[in-house]
Amino acid sequence: MTLVSTLAPAYRGARRNSAALFAGFAAAIVAVSPAAAQKAEPGAYAVARTGVQIDSDVKPTQVLAKGQTVAKTTPTLPKNIDHDGGFTGELGMGYDFGGLRVEGTAGYDTAKVNAKALSTKTYSGAGRTKSFDLGVAAYVDLVREGPLKPFVGGGIGASRVDYSISRLMIDKTPGTRKPMVGIMGKDWGFRWHLDAGASYDVTPQTAIEVLGRYSQTTGLRMKGTAIDENLVPQTMDYKLKNTSVSIMAGIRQKF
């Protein structure tokens, strides 16, 4: 049993309670004493993070044009497409103002579709979701004295998402056209994330960190293709939303 499969159920529950969790973190930020901020050393830094997506999902919503109908024999995608554990990572530059850090990052995420969850007795599911992320974020150190510093924060930005998701009818006859439905393409969307973690100062210039992240990308729109049981192709629009829960480890190096 892998670490991802062991932790996934717990993180699905954490995702459902993410709003309450981060509301508590926001209250903690307000409670931090401004005077303590002067005890942290300011400076520019570079940051690198890498980790795993514990749980990620794509939520497609079919959008029909005026007068457009879908035959009952046309295969469909579920409202929530679950993914297996995947990779996430980012590189960036930032500035520590003394307990308040602001940074810009570029990142990459990828995860395979949970083929078992997408498949049925009639259809075989497969696919992968990849994204290139650009954003800015801010973090507050909740404890500013000593080497161990818990922190909270979040960011906003844009994400270029690449979808390749399909359901294909199971048929033992190779090379024949089969009923199917799929989404393949790329689009830019609005991305935001909320983070919580802790860092440890190895030296005055170098800190290592571990953080958990909930992220969401919205505003995505893409065309999909479906072939019904009469082998009639049809094009339709989808609105899509991505969500993920990740764990990352990183290093910050001050100049």
TrEMBL record:
- The question of whether Signal is a record keyword is answered with yes
* Pfam families hit by this protein: OMP_b-brl
Enumerate the InterPro entries for this protein: Beta-barrel_OMP, OMP/PagP_B-barrel
The keyword ATP-binding is assigned to this record: no
Show where the Outer membrane protein beta-barrel domain sits: 24-250
> What SUPFAM superfamilies does the annotation carry?
OMPA-like
This chain belongs to which protein, by name? Opacity protein-like surface antigen
Q: Which organism is it from?
A: Sphingomonas yabuuchiae
